Amino acid sequence: MSGGWAGSTRRAELPPDWYTRIRPFVLTRDQYRCQWFENGTRCARPANQVDHIGDRDDHRPENLQALCEDCHARKSSRQGNEARWAVRMTRPPERHPGLL
């Protein structure tokens, strides 16, 4: 494994027909064009990635979109940063007053 898959278990979590049926279907449906929409503009560059719009375990076509490599990397980076900040911003539990 190389690149973004290095050290990841995500590939093993995908359904067995991801590469033979699901991924090709989404890329064809979206005409191999990036579907990323930001600031009122669609990217529309050539797409070679299939991304989960919402739940990463929902592999239905309506939860999947074709993205170009750059937009997919930006989206994944944002999601990772949001997850890290959510953990940092979690307040530690208050100690019981009798234990202070």
The coarse overall form would be elongated
Topology as a string of helices (H) and strands (E): HHEEEEH
Largest sheet: 2 strands, antiparallel
Proportion of strand residues: 5-15%
Whole-angstrom Rg: 18 Å
Share of helix, binned: 25-40%
**Segments where pLDDT lies below 50 for 5+ residues?**
none
Q: How many domains make up the 3D coordinates?
A: 1
Number of helices: 3
- Number of strand segments: 4
User: What is the structural class?
Assistant: alpha+beta
Calculate the terminal CA-CA distance, rounded to whole Å: 50 Å
Q: Please state how the strands of the largest beta sheet are arranged side by side.
A: 1-2
Mean pLDDT: 86
Give structural attributes:
100 residues, alpha+beta, two-stranded antiparallel ribbon, two-stranded antiparallel sheet, 3 helices, 4 strands, 36% helix, HNH, HNH domain-containing protein
Architecture overview:
The protein has 100 residues and is an alpha+beta fold. It has one domain (9-81). Helices cover 36% and strands 12% of the residues. It contains 3 helices and 4 strands. The strands form 2 sheets. The chain has a two-stranded antiparallel ribbon. A two-stranded antiparallel ribbon has the order 3-4. A hairpin with a 2-residue loop joins strand 1 (37-38) and strand 2 (41-42). It is elongated. The relative contact order is 0.13.
